[in-house]
């Protein structure tokens, strides 16, 4: 039973990521950063929509690590973009 739910979760995430690639390609905006951000949003939505009510299966206990890794990647992206936008006079190092 948990294997079927786990595979349904994986298939839903893969479908979201494929849809993201298709939409970004149609909009001519495909880049690694946008794909990563949209995939992370999809993962967060999917984790919340499929959250069990009573007992979490063993495989779902590892999802917070994946979410945390995605949030760290998002934070690094934001810091990098801020450093690109800020003028050099602001940074004193």
Characterise the protein shown here.
There is one protein chain. By secondary structure, the protein is mostly helical. The protein has one domain (2-85). It has helices spanning 2-26, 32-49, 63-85. The longest helix has 25 residues, at 2-26. The radius of gyration is 17 Å and the shape is flat. Keywords: Membrane, Transmembrane, Transmembrane helix. The chain crosses the membrane at residues 9-27, 33-51, 63-83.
* Strand and helix order: HHH
Largest sheet: none
Give the terminus-to-terminus CA distance. 56 Å
Low-confidence stretches: none
Structural class: mainly alpha
| Range of helix content | over 70%
Radius of gyration: 17 Å
Strand content: under 5%
Query: What is the overall silhouette?
Result: flat
Please tally the β strands and state the result.
0
Number of helices: 3
Mean pLDDT: 91
Q: How many domains make up the coordinates?
A: 1
Characteristics:
93 residues; 3 helices; 0% strand; flat
How would you sum up this structure in a few lines?
Keywords: Membrane, Transmembrane, Transmembrane helix. This protein is an all-alpha fold and 93 residues long.
What is the topology?
Elements: H1 2-26, H2 32-49, H3 63-85
Transmembrane segments: 9-27, 33-51, 63-83
Keywords: Membrane, Transmembrane, Transmembrane helix
